[in-house]
């Protein structure tokens, strides 16, 4: 009998680890999945022929290893000739399927090249994302706000808050109180559910860098002659804001369902509805996993030589009886944000004319839109039509995903689906993006522990990591598995490196934790680039893949 690796979770990290083990070793993976689905937060829900992802999932990475892995699974669509050029952050990258892969056996199992446009909706107008401190933006905000922004920005530069303890302090010092109040405070608190003055300044420092007053002035001068772009459609959108990314024809989850099929075809096992209750340890090694079937209540035990966990660290530690009370306390105090996605099918998108009050049809080419309007709970809006033709059953309809960030303990989560549907429609009407008569259908999807949070007991998280180092055959990978804000490509890399370590006999796991710490993964301008200020939300949750 060969060796076995028990993998907790059938999301991108868990499936990647299983595939790597099967193609590179004689170790047999057994995946234990709590839900009945494949793909974790990267799954795609098929609702009456309309497909919806749980948040935006772009397939783009600065890692050749990951890009090649994806293209091995799904080659580029034949319309590209097996090659394409992807542009991002004013850079370009040529990509190519392997020779002979341009004609896939199954026509739907391909990667499409999708244009990306992302904007902010605020004051019933669209602003470029990341926010640009340009004349265009200031014109759209109006003279009164502009004066307040300029003076508060200058005040913050000459009289910064000291000591800089919170995210509120950090952003105010960088951009002034007015910009903080307009474009950061409300949206950040929507996402994380706590005041900005309770989030550490270090987190903001990691996400926003290289911004200065001189850059802002330089950019403002360069854009003085440009036309404002505050209209409700795409007219006037700068081409530099449009990027491209790869995307499976039938949604992000399509690729992971394909990987799951490949894993099982090669001899791996995926067992669903397995809720992990105990991590059995002996002599500083993990020896087994005990689960409860969420459908039948049946208990099961799985033994192996290696254990790879993508489950939330909070639950992992709770299942280790040998964990000291202090470690259990820290793990129990780790916090997460949960997620409700409301799919809304429309005849059309329409906006109210401010002069006549008449609704007029509008077209949005945005992949997703950050909803900055403070009077609604809606945080982000996906336009699935712009993610490829496979996402919408009838292309003459508009298929939206309304994203709400909450906790399971919130009143919002506790409401019925019908109540949430009503809230969603009422909010779209109130921010003047739809007419109620255009609603055709609506569905509600919920996802727990979508975003690991960097507050609560997180400042003590190193103690948890140090404790888990005592188990050399246990590898933490993925977003929740490491309680780290990983994108999908980062999560995949952690799985790949974990398998590297298993096969190479590497004892240190430092190389796992170093993934997603490189400067290049942050969406920001480099010091050597053209002096253009783009203000990125520190919580602009990297939609799963590298921005």
Automatic annotation (TrEMBL):
A Pfam match: Amino_oxidase
InterPro entries xrefs: Amino_oxidase, FAD/NAD-bd_sf
Basic and acidic residues: bias regions: 520-533
GO molecular function: flavin adenine dinucleotide binding; oxidoreductase activity; UDP-galactopyranose mutase activity
Domain annotation Amine oxidase: ranges: 13-431
GO CC, alphabetical: cytosol
Chain segments carrying region Disordered: 520-547
PANTHER family: UDP-GALACTOPYRANOSE MUTASE
Protein known as: Protoporphyrinogen oxidase
Organism: Filimonas lacunae
């Amino acid at each position: 009998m060969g060796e076995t690796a028990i993998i907790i979770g059938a999301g991108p990290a868990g499936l990647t680890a299983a595939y790597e083990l099967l193609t590179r070793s004689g170790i047999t993976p057994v995946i234990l999945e709590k839900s009945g689905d494949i793909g974790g937060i990267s799954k795609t829900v098929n609702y009456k022929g309309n497909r919806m992802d749980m948040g935006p999932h772009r397939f783009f990475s600065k890692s050749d290893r990951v890009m090649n892995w994806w293209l091995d699974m799904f080659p580029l669509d034949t319309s590209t000739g097996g090659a394409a050029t992807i542009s991002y952050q004013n850079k370009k990258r040529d990509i190519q399927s392997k020779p002979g892969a341009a004609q896939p056996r199954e026509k739907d199992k391909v990667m499409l090249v999708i244009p990306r446009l992302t904007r902010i909706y605020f004051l019933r107008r669209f602003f470029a994302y990341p926010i640009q401190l340009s004349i265009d933006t200031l014109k759209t905000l109006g003279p009164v706000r502009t004066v307040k922004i300029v003076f508060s920005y200058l005040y913050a530069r000459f009289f910064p808050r000291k000591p800089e303890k919170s995210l509120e302090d950090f952003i105010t010092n960088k951009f002034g109180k007015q910009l903080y109040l307009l474009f950061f405070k409300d949206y950040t608190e929507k996402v994380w559910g706590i005041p900005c003055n309770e989030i550490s300044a270090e987190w903001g420092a990691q996400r926003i860098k290289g911004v200065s007053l001189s850059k802002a002035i330089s950019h403002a001068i360069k854009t003085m002659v440009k036309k404002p772009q505050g209209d409700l459609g795409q007219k006037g959108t700068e081409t530099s804001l449009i990027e491209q990314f790869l995307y499976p024809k039938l949604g992000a989850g399509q690729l992971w369902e394909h990987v799951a099929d490949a894993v099982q075809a090669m001899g791996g096992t995926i067992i669903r509805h397995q809720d992990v209750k105990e991590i059995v340890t002996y002599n500083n090694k993990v020896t087994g996993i005990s689960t409860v079937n969420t459908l039948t209540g049946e208990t099961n035990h799985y033994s192996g030589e290696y254990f790879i966990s993508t489950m939330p660290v909070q639950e992992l530690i709770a299942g280790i009886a040998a964990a000291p009370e202090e470690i259990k306390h820290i793990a129990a105090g780790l916090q997460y944000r949960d997620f409700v996605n409301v799919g809304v099918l429309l005849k059309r998108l329409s906006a109210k004319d401010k002069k006549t009050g008449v609704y007029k049809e509008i077209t949005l080419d945005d992949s997703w839109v950050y909803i900055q309007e403070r009077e609604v709970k809606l945080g982000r809006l996906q336009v699935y039509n712009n993610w490829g033709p496979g996402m919408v059953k009838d292309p003459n309809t508009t298929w939206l995903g309304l994203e709400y960030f909450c906790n399971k303990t919130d009143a919002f989560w506790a409401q019925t689906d019908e109540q949430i549907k009503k809230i969603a429609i009422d909010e779209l009407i109130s921010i003047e993006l739809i007419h109620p008569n255009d609603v055709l259908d609506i569905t509600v999807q919920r996802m727990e522990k979508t975003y690991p949070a960097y507050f609560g007991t997180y400042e003590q998280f190193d103690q948890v990591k140090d404790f888990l180092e005592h188990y050399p055959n246990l590898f933490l990978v993925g977003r929740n598995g490491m309680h780290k804000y990983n994108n999908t490509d980062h999560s995949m890399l952690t799985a790949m490196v974990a398998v590297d370590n298993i096969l190479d006999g590497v004892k240190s796991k430092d190389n796992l934790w170093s993934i997603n710490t490189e400067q290049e993964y942050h969406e920001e301008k480099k010091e050597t680039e053209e002096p253009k200020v783009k203000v990125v939300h520190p919580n602009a949750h990297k939609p799963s893949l590298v921005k």
